[in-house]
Design brief:
It comes from Paraburkholderia xenovorans (strain LB400). The protein contains four helices and two strands; from the N terminus they run H-H-H-E-E-H.
Length: 67
């Protein structure tokens, strides 16, 4: 959830990884794993970065409440 929240705040896997002090590939792997567990994409991949999908917005509200 920490990685998801960082990606949500940064709109970027690379920037989230920089702030978390981990490799971008590790953040991406965890996001893909989370999306597989949830069964739907949580972010729309855009040329300008990432944007939450409708499911991502619902999940983000849960994460914000938990954190």
């Amino acid at each position: 959830m920490r990685y998801f929240d960082a990606i949500r705040r940064c709109d970027s896997i690379r920037e989230a990884a920089r702030q978390l002090h981990v490799a971008a590939s590790a953040v991406n792997r965890q996001l893909l794993k989370l999306e597989a567990e949830v069964g739907t994409p949580l972010f729309e991949r855009l040329a300008s970065g990432l944007a939450l999908t409708a499911a991502g917005e619902v999940f983000a509200r849960h994460v914000i409440g938990v954190m």
